[in-house]
Amino acid sequence: MAESNDLSVAPLTIGPCGYVAIVGRPNVGKSTLLNHLLRQKLSITSRKPQTTRHILLGVDTEGDSQIIYVDTPGIHDHARRELNRQMVRSATAVLADVDLILMVTERDVWSEGDDLVLDYLRKLETPCFAVINKIDQMKQKSALLPVIDRLSHLGRFREFYPVAALRSEGLDALRRGICAALPTRPHLFPADQITDQTERFLAAEIIREKLMRRLGDELPHHLGVVIDSYSEGPTVTDISADIIVERAGQKRIVIGTGGEKLRLIGQEARQDIERLIGRQVMLRLWVKVRAGWTDSAAALRRMGYDQG
Question: Is the CB of residue 56 less than 8 Å from the CB of residue 204?
Answer without folding.
Answer: no
